[in-house]
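Notes taken during the Thursday session

The instructor put the following on the board and asked us to keep it in front of us for the whole hour. The protein is Diacylglycerol kinase family lipid kinase. We were told not to look anything up and to reason only from what is written here. First, the residues (298 in total):
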Amino acid sequence: MYEKAMLIYNGNAGSNDIATLLSEAVAGLSQHITEFTLMKTNERGDTERLCRERGEHFDLVIIMGGDGTVHEAVNGLIHLERSPSIFILPTGTCNDFARALNIPLKVKQACEAFKEATVQPLDIGLVNERAFSNFFGLGLITRASEGTNDDLKSSIGKFSYFLSAIQSLQTAESFSYSLQLDGKTVQDEAVMILAMNGSFLGTTNLYHEQTKLDDGKLELYIIREAGLALLKNLFNKARSPEWPGEMEGIEFIQAASLQLETSPIEDIDIDGEIYLETPTRLSLKQKALPFLVCKEEK
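Then, after some discussion, the predicted structure tokens were revealed:
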């Protein structure tokens, strides 16, 4: 039972039936909460501000929204002396971090799963003083995200990411990078660099057998080239819960921190939000925020 909880919902995003979703959320969760506060956001930055200014007044913060809303919440809560527990009610397009926490993607089912969810302190990534819960990326992934039409995203959801990614594969350009890691410097070229804290990207399960959400390590993927080699790797991964033993053109590294420079300067995508650029220092704050994690369905 939680004494005080704040539910933050994005009135401008995703679903057109926000009243129904709110009704389901309140009906499903209120029996576990003594004092329940609903807060509507109207513009970008509201979720981060509410979490930063009011987070410590609550035992539980419920984030109803997609990956962008979760991203804002994490940045608002990460610097608090005492963070409340965090529960995600997924109502976005991909809901990638919610997937990593085994949270059902329907609000009613998520509320049911809440009853047996357990609180686990999870790692949070840091880049240029900003936080991310799920991923850091540049190169091909950033261009795919920038190419996603907002109207298309609203109408056909995650399929729009697929269309944009295929288009980006056809026009992928490599960049030079300098990576400082474990006391050594590596210089080479790539079409994409991806650092995962979670295990889903665009609804695709990128789970690696070494992946954990609280081990203090990021999973770093350096993709050398696009085209058929990359498509083959992704196809094989989509068919299997494990990464192929041989990943042609992809280097896998685990790291707690690294420094990265690129030429030319590259835009950075964190949790689907693009507002930073290289050079950057990337690190992980271990067991930084307490999330409610649901039982994995068998």
